[in-house]
Amino acid sequence: MDSAANLIRRSDSLQFALLAGVSLLLGVSYRYCRFIPPLVFETDWMLFFSLGSVWGATALVLALVCSLFLTRVSWAEEEGFDPRVLLFPAIFIFAWCYSVYEYNFFVGHSHIVDRSVLVLLALLTFLRPAFLSLFVVQLGVILAHLSHPLKFSWTDKSPLIDVLLIAVVYLLGKRFRLFKPQSFFAVVISFLALYYFRPGIGKMQLEWLRHDDLSNLFLAAVHQNAWLTNLHWLDVSWLAEYVFRLGPVLMIGSYFFELFVVMFLCRRKYLVFGLLALVGMHLGIFLSSGILFWKWIVLCLSVVLAVVRVDSASVSRLFNTRFSLCLLGFLIVGTRWYTPSPVLAWLDTPMSVTYHFKVVADSGRVYQIPPRNFEPFDLQFSQARFGFFANEPLLVGCLGMTQSPFICDLTAGISDASTLKALREKYGQRVKYKTSVEEMREFLKRYVLRERVNEARGLFSYIPKPPQHIWSNPAPIPEPVWDWGETPVSIKVFRNTVVHRDFTAHQLENTEVLHVEVGGGS
Questions:
Q1: Which residues neighbour 380 within 8 Å (Cβ) at sequence distance 6 or greater?
Q2: pTM value surpassing 0.85
Q3: Distance CA 246, CA 242 (A)
Q4: What is the pLDDT of residue 522?
Q5: How far apart are the C-alpha atoms of 378 and 373, rounded to whole Å?
Q6: What distance in Å separates the CA atoms of residue 161 and residue 29, rounded to the nearest whole number?
Q7: Over the stretch 23-58, which tens digit does the pLDDT of each residue have?
Q8: CB atoms near residue 458 (< 10 Å)
Q9: Vertex 321, ends 320 and 324: CA angle to 5°?
Q10: Residue 275 region, left (φ>0) first, then alpha (ψ -120 to 50), else beta?
C-alpha cells in the first residue's frame, strides 16, 4: 500500500488519472439525487427526510466521514496554487441561487430550513474545508426537489458542481498526501475544457457549418421568450439579417475556440486567451438569444484569475507536456462516457414553438402567465418542453432546435398548418417526458389557486435574485398578467407555431392543446 501511495505521490500523471477518475464516478453518482422520492420534497426539512432514500443516506454518511477526515485540514495556498480562487465563487453562487428562489407552490413549502442550512454550510466552508462535502449534499437535495414534477436542466450548473466534487476528492487525497495542488488545477481545467470540447465535436458530427443559420435562433428567442420585446419588428428583422450575415464568422469562431481547449495545458497564455475568448462567445450568445451562461462565465474568469496569480516558478508544474497529454486523454474518455457533460450541439430550424398559459377568471376576463412567473420552475417554462400536451410527434424542440440535418432543411419549406401537420405525422418523433398531462393539470391548478399575495416575506425574499439562465418576458399579447386578484375558473394552454422567412415570423397555427377546469377555487 505504501509503495503504491509513494508511486502516486511521485507521478503527476497518476495523480491526474486517480483524481479525474474518482471525480468522474462521483459526478455521475451525484446526479442520482434526482431519484429521491417526491414525498421528501413535501416536508419542512428535505435533507433530514432524504435519509430514508438510498441516495440521501449514502451521500450524508459519506459526507460526514469526509468531514471527519478533513477536520484538521485548512485552506491555504500551496506551491503558488490557491484552490479558494476557484471554489469560493462557485460556493457563493450556489448559496445565493438556491436560497432566494420563490416559494414552491407545487409542494406547498418554502423549505426555509434547507435554505438556511445551505447558507450556513457555505459560510462554514469559507472557514474550513471540512464542511464542503456537507454543503454539496444539501445542495443536491435542493436541486433534486426542483426536478419535481418537471424535468430540471442542470446544464448551466454542471461544471461548477463538478469543481466542488473534484475539490472534495482532492482534499481527501491531500489529507493523505496523495495529491499536489497542480494536479487539482489540471483536473479542474480538464473538466471545464470537456464542457466546451464535447459541443465542438457534436457540431462537427451535425455538419453545423453547412446546415445551421444563427438568425433562426435569434428569431426563435424573440418568438418564444419575448427576447428584445421592446424593439419594433422592423428592428428585429434588421438584427436577424445582421446575425445571418455574421453567422459564418461567428460559427467558425465558435468551432475554433471550443476545440482550442486541447491546448489549455500547453501554455498559460493559451489558457487565458482561450477562456477570455469563450467568455466573449457567451456574451455574444446572450445578445443574440437571451441565453446567459453566467455561471460558466464566472468559472472561466475564476480559472483565469487563479492561474494569473500563480508565480512564474510554479507555472511549469501545471503547463507542460505531461499534463497536456493527460488533458487530451481525458477529453477522449470524457466525450465518450461522461454523460453529465451536455453535448449542446443542435441545428437552428426556421420554425419555433411557444406555449401561452392563460387563466379565465369568473368575471370572464383572461390573464396570461409569463414563464418567469412560474418560479421556481421558470427555467422549465422558458424552455417550453411541453410536447406531451397534444400527444403528437414533434419536428423541433426548444427554440426550434433539432439534431437532424434533414429536419432542419425540411422545416424551411413549411408554408401552412396542413403541411406542418402532415410532416409532423410523417417525420416527427415522440419524446418521452417525465411529467404526464395529469400531473401538469395538477401543477397548473395549484399555481392559480395559491394565495401568493398573502405569503409572509422572509429574509431570503429581500435578497436580489440572480440573473436568469434563459431570459423570458411576458408575452407580447394583450392580456394582463395573472395576479390572483380574481377567482380562477379555468386554464387554457395554446401552442403557437411560426416559421421564419425573410427574417420575419409567419404564424402557422395557434391551437388550444390543454384545458384545465379549476373549479372556481374550491
A1: 150, 151, 152, 153, 374
A2: yes
A3: 6
A4: 39
A5: 7
A6: 12
A7: 999 999 999 999 999 999 999 999 999 999 999 999
A8: 13
A9: 90
A10: alpha
Residue 124 corresponds to which cell in the numbers above?
Answer: 462554514
DSSP state of 363: T
* Model confidence at 199: pLDDT above 70: yes
The span from the CA of 124 to the CA of 118, in Å, is: 10
Give me the residue label for grid cell 390543454.
514
Give Cα 255 to chain centroid, integer Å.
Answer: 21
Residue 490 β-bridge partners: 360, 517
User: Strand 401-402 to strand 488-501: parallel, antiparallel, or no bridges (unpaired)?
Assistant: unpaired
Report the C-alpha gap between 158 and 115 in whole angstroms: 20
Whether residue 226 contacts residue 472, with contact meaning beta carbons closer than 8 Å, is answered with yes
Q: Report how far residue 189's alpha carbon sits from residue 328's, in angstroms, rounded to the nearest whole number.
A: 12
> In this structure, what C-alpha cell is assigned to residue 266?
500547453
Cβ contact 499:411 at 8 Å: yes
How far is Cα 462 from Cα 66, in angstroms, rounded to an integer?
A: 34
Helices and strands in the chain, H and E counts: 20, 6
Residue 149 grid coordinates: 414534477
Residue 70 grid cell:
478533513
Q: What is the DSSP string of 434-477?
A: SS-HHHHHHHHHHHHHS-GGGPPP-GGGGSPPPPPSB-----SS
Q: What is the DSSP letter of 53?
A: S
User: Hey, is 234 helix, strand or coil?
Assistant: helix
Query: Number of C-alpha atoms within 13 angstroms, CB side, residue 137?
Result: 24
Distance CA 170, CA 173 (A): 5
Collapse the DSSP code of 368 into the 3-class scheme (helix H, G, I; strand E, B; otherwise coil) and give the result: strand
**109-130: b or e for each residue (b if 16 or more CB lie within 10 Å)?**
bbbeebbebbbebbeebbeebb
C-alpha closest to that of 494 among 476, 512, 475: 512
Q: 10 Å Cβ neighbour count for 163? A: 24
Question: b/e for 482-514, b at 16 or more Cβ within 10 A?
Answer: bebebebbbbebbbbbbbbeebebeebeeeebb
Give the up-direction half-sphere exposure of residue 92: CA atoms within 13 A in the CB hemisphere: 12
Cα–Cα distance measured from residue 50 to residue 39, given in angstroms and rounded to the nearest whole number: 9
The DSSP output letter for 468 is P
Read off the pLDDT band of 453 (50, 70, 90). very low
How many whole angstroms separate alpha carbon 20 and alpha carbon 191? 8
What does the alpha-carbon distance between residue 190 and residue 332 come to, in Å, rounded to a whole number? 11
Q: Taken in order 203, 209, 210, 216, is the CA torsion positive or negative? A: positive
- Are 281 and 254 within 8 A, CB to CB? yes
Task: Return the closest-CA partner of residue 156 out of 218, 94, 84, 99.
Answer: 94
